[in-house]
Amino acid sequence: MSEDPSDKVELARADGASRGFYDLKNRINDLTGKEWVFCTKSVIPRSYPPSFQLKLRNAHGGQKPPELCAEIVQAFTKRGQVVLDPFAGVGGTLLGCSICGRVAIGIEINKEWTDIYHQVCALGHVRRQAIVHGDASCLVPAFRFPPADMVLTDIPYWNMDKVEKSRGTFKRAGEAAKGVYSDKSKLGRFDDEGPQTKDEWLAMLRLVFAACHGALKNKGYAAVFVGNMYNKGEFHYLTADVAGVLKAAGFVFKGEIIWYDVAKKLHLYGINYEWIPSMVHQSILVFQKDEGSAGVDGGAEFKAQNRARLNAYQRKKGTLNGAR
Ligand SMILES: C[S@@+](CC[C@H](N)C(=O)[O-])C[C@H]1O[C@@H](n2cnc3c(N)ncnc32)[C@H](O)[C@@H]1O
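Above: the input record for the complex with S-adenosylmethionine. Below: its predicted structure, written as tokens.
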């Protein structure tokens, strides 16, 4: 396909610096070519910024950084589009969507976490997204909204709390050991109401992701946080299990992004008797719903809509360079 230079619009940041050129043919996101290069990187090193009442959200134990969620959402959606999170927790996805001007719908089974999300929004004056208290395996199949543009979620874990940590922790030379770890990590708290066996866990995920496939528009992406784990002396490659669940639900597997949590503390698992990895990363598995070309907008009309949408937003912000 030949390049038409009139399809390109230069965008600027609020400080006037160029963001590069946005192509009106862009069907996926609002990124310029220069920004797109970075959004396809397969490793994202990020820590937890102390933002959005992190201390309050820490009560959850499995919460994700809203800034990281915003980065992912911006790679797969345009401003104003709708993101569904069936396992919303204390709202990493929802807060991420508020950062970047997307609309989010979250479902969370544990009221303690929906309450914390509401508190976080009130304390930080953040626009509250819709969060429904309930079971995603019942609620997502009943999803009656217009199709979501993206699914971004972070699955609850099966038996995560059963991993025992070694006794003792890091100390400086000459210091006494700093005590004994709790046998249960805080992560155990977020699947109190979840399934207990791996088969039950997979069955619940199958139900939810089959329903997410139905709730997603054609060509929409689903990005799923998954961490591998140890259980009873064995490494469980849960990323592969979860990829299988989404493929069985009809999704096409598109790739894996590794989120390297650079600030994650190392724990002493198995020291002196067994090698157990200290996992400082999680996978973000990326899938797409693809039912052929239906749902893909036509060329000229699509570009005109894209230009109008972009102009309206950039004019509001006063950051449009070279708009035609
Ligand atoms: C890994 S956490 C999500 C954390 C979230 N990304 C955040 O930033 O707070 C998974 C969440 O799924 C919830 N959950 C488990 N089973 C569920 C179900 N059947 N329906 C809805 N939520 C469920 C858990 O209570 C937990 O909060």
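Notes for the reader.
The chain has a mean pLDDT of 84.
The first helix runs from residue 33 to 39.
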